[in-house]
Design a protein that fits this description.
The protein has 13 helices and 22 strands. The protein is of the alpha/beta class.
Length: 400
């Protein structure tokens, strides 16, 4: 149900616009308060009168009413909505939204919307597959817009393939899922370790690794989007999450500092995700002054660092814990061993053998294992999408 939810439906000029009538009916039937904004081209496919009657609200299309000069404020519309959904989204409006164009009320409203935006493209199959369309969709996804992919079937052109706007019933399910997700982890406290650790050799040099902190940052944002508050204990990184009063950042350098930061928080959290690439070893002693070149070899004695996940796993009470495994060989076997050894509830495996997965990339390809040997393998996707999937899987596990 969508009782009391304010939904702003943005309709653009595709033949699929005729489905907007059913869609508005379904939204209203689910209890939503619906307003509609449409482009000029959309009005060639469905009349504003139909949508105004079904939504029980005036339909917005122009910046002002010609007869009275009365202003339709895109800012007010954008701020009003709990969710804006652009359905159907044509290739033309997609290109405009992806590039910040603002030549009509719908585009201006999109730019003004502070809340989440869902997009449901509709176009012919070749248009849908065109690299420029895919780039534009990726761009909108990178802004955090939620893409409901077009469905397969017969298209208006007579061709068969992907391009049909998702059916209104499916859109309703996506919207309901979205709101469920938004409140799913409300009030939950989450600890995330993230990034690399730097183990000082002297004041200038350190032992570190290639971890970028992108996965941890994406996870923090995904947890906050699901209503949780996050304590992010992060090693040195150039990729922190967007500032939010729901993310408390604890910056650390070494594994030992990360250990004490995480240990101080662990008892009080509901969920802990160990996404950091912690240096397993650090110099036994760190020189207080720069080590000078001596011409000969330099011997460093390395000693093991605390295994944060392992140590905290031993003290675990009700926390749901998730680990990461980055492997180069015997991936699954190693990941499952770690799941057991570190007392994780889930482990996320990324393999360095997969193109586009692991350090520094914006994308990741992971498989997730639970304690009952269940495995979910996700395709290569953006770290933001992977983070959302991980959060959803955690939610599904803890709600049982
Ligand atoms: O044993 P391995 O380093 O592959 O284990 C990976 C998992 O353990 C990750 O979740 C990582 O964050 C965590 N870990 C840790 N402290 C260490 C080493 C790994 O928390 N010293």
């Amino acid at each position: 149900m969508l009782t009391g939810k304010k939904i702003l439906l943005a309709v653009t000029g595709s033949i699929a616009a005729y489905k907007a009538a059913f869609f508005v009916r379904l939204l209203v039937k689910s209890g939503a308060d619906v307003k509609v904004v449409m482009t000029k081209a959309a009005k060639d496919f469905i009349s504003p009168l139909t949508l105004a009657t079904l939504s029980k609200n005036p339909v917005y299309s122009e910046y002002f009413k010609e007869t009275t000069g009365e202003w339709n404020s895109h800012v007010e519309l954008g701020l009003w909505a709990d969710l804006m959904i652009v359905a159907p989204l044509t290739a033309n409006t997609l290109a405009k939204l992806a590039n910040g164009y603002c030549d009509n009320l719908l585009c201006a409203t999109y730019l003004s919307a502070r809340g989440p935006v869902m997009i449901a493209p509709a176009m012919d199959l070749d248009m849908y597959e065109h690299p420029s369309t895919r780039d534009n969709l990726d761009k909108l996804k990178s802004y955090g817009n939620i893409l409901v992919e077009a469905e397969d079937g017969e298209l208006a052109s007579g061709l068969h393939g992907a391009g049909r706007m998702a059916e209104p019933e499916h859109l309703i399910t996506h919207i309901q899922d979205h709101f469920e997700m938004l409140s799913s982890l409300k009030g939950k406290k989450v600890l995330i370790t993230s990034g690399p650790t730097f183990e000082a050799i002297d004041p200038i040099r350190f032992i570190g690794n290639h971890s970028s902190g992108k996965m941890g940052a994406a996870l923090a944002e995904a947890f906050v989007a699901a209503g949780a508050t996050v304590s992010l204990v992060s090693g040195p990184s150039r990729n922190y999450p967007q500032t939010s009063d729901k993310i408390h950042l604890h910056q650390v350098q070494s594994a030992k500092e990360m250990m004490s930061g995480a240990a101080a928080l662990f008892d009080d959290v509901d969920i802990a995700v160990f996404a950091a690439a912690v240096s397993d070893y650090g110099p036994k002693e760190s020189a207080t002054q720069k080590i000078k070149k001596s011409g000969g070899s330099l011997h460093l004695e390395l000693v093991p660092n605390p295994d944060i996940a392992l140590e905290l796993g031993k003290t675990k009470t009700s926390q749901f814990t998730v680990g990461f495994a980055l492997e180069t060989n015997d991936e699954k076997v190693n990941a499952k061993e770690k799941l057991k050894k570190k007392n994780f509830d889930l482990i996320v495996l990324n393999s360095l053998n997969d193109k586009g997965a692991g350090f520094s990339h914006d994308t990741n390809k992971v498989s997730i294992f639970d304690k009952d040997n269940n495995e979910v393998s996700l395709e290569l996707k953006s770290k933001k999408d992977v983070a959302q999937d991980i959060v959803r899987i955690i939610y599904d596990k803890i709600k049982i």
